[in-house]
Amino acid sequence: MSNIGQARRDIAAKLTANGVPCSTDPKVTTPAVLVGSPTVVGSQGIGGWQVEFPIQILGTPPGNEQSLDWMLDQLEMALAIFPGSAFPRVVDHAGGECPAYVLTVVQSVANPNC
Questions:
Q1: β-pairing, 39-43 with 32-35?
Q2: Distance CA 36, CA 14 (A)
Q3: How far is CA 72 from CA 5, 79, 112, in A?
Q4: CATH number, residue 58
Q5: What is the number of domains present in the chain?
Q6: Range of the domain at 99
């Protein structure tokens, strides 16, 4: 398994261990918390990369007050583990639009060849 893939799974495991029901499966059924596809935003020489991991807190479409309350509960728990900024969004999930909050975790990931 790649180091980037392992870092993604470690983020999901840390959320789950702290009470946030989290998945790495892009086909997860909503409502759910998903650690999505990472983005490599820079390198650290040949030793590794700076990687952004999106934590998507996915509500049930089309979204209502109950869905928003659930998302905010999960968001607070996630922010306690990974402090940062989170933004409301409408994201494409499983072929449809889904209300969400997106929290981005930035981590350094080592190049396994170094």
A1: unpaired
A2: 15
A3: 27, 10, 37
A4: 3.30.70.1700
A5: 1
A6: 3-110
